[in-house]
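[User] Once you have settled down, look closely at the record that follows, and write a paragraph about the fold.
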Amino acid sequence: MILLNLMLGNGPNTPIDPYIAQRSKIGQIESTKISEFILLRTSKHITSLYVNLL
């Protein structure tokens, strides 16, 4: 949160806009979901390649 405040040019003591805080939280959740999805698809792909090699 402090890092986000610094990036927005606010001091660490400046209260952050709750809307921005909410959006950043949603963005973190979305990026986690996307990376999990990519990881899942990649692991399936690697598994099928490995099975084909056997």
